[in-house]
Amino acid sequence: VIILTDYNLSDQFKINHWTRAAGKKFIAADIFGLVGSVFNDFGPKHVVEDANGEACVEVYVEHIDKITGDVICLEETRHNLSDGDHVTFSEVKGMTELNGCQPRKITVINPAKFNIGDLSNLSNYKEGGKAIQVKMPIEVSHKSLTASIEEPEFLISDFAKLERPSQFHILLQALHDFRQKNGRLPNSYDSSDADQVYDLAQTINDRTKAKVEKVDKKLCDLLCFGSRGSLCPMAGFIGGVTAQEVMKVISRGSHL
């Protein structure tokens, strides 16, 4: 896993290009005062073996219908499974072919019943049994840093500020460009430096596919005025998220 912190965006592009070619995992983290980012690129074919990190569901069975393929949980216990989950079985009497069987994909019927498909070629069910969830590997394709910047996907967290993520997307690129050209971040509360970043942001906005209607000058100023700040809470949060992503990619868990 290659982890970058406080690198210029141009260097991040180069290293990310190399990691994709070499089959390595890439993480880049940045903090600019009260604004931070973490980017993951685990390649075009990253396998996730545990999508949620939770313990596998186990539920006792009351009946298995050979004709319909329906599994009814004991005393209508909630199974907490979802469509597309997979299960195997143990301790089933009669329909013993299910014990230790290859994982079967389920369709949820209701909170206490699910379907496991065709059972017509199996023995008749007698009693007992336990359904055990099996987590199946999922292949996830990650976009490169270049592609992600050109075609970003935003998760809206504040519906009162719908454009805020796309504004920061433009402004952070401009901040990187400023640092690349000047060898430093904007000076604290320096309006001249903030104006330079704003001009760079407008240039980026003119050429990018991920445009905003108008670059927010006030937001740009606030970002620039505090971009040199190194705050313990931000470092702790961004550092913690980054470390967690490292642990998850090593263990093939779910990611950002």
Q: How would you portray this structure in words?
A:
Residues 69-135 form the Ubiquitin-activating enzyme E1 FCCH domain. One of its GO terms (molecular function) is ubiquitin-like modifier activating enzyme activity. With 256 residues, this protein is of the alpha+beta class. It has two domains: 2-48 and 141-251, Ubiquitin-activating enzyme E1, inactive adenylation domain, subdomain 2 (Rossmann fold, 3-Layer(aba) Sandwich); 58-134, Elongation Factor Tu (Ef-tu), domain 3 (Beta Barrel), CATH 2.40.30.180. The protein is 34% helix and 21% strand. It has helices at residues 9-22, 145-150, 164-182, 191-207, 217-226, 232-251, and strands spanning 2-5, 26-32, 35-41, 46-48, 58-64, 70-73, 86-90, 104-105, 107-110, 113-115, 130-134, 138-140. α1 links the parallel β1 and β2. The longest helix has 20 residues, at 232-251. The radius of gyration is 26 Å and the shape is elongated. The protein starts with a strand and ends in a 5-residue tail after the last helix.
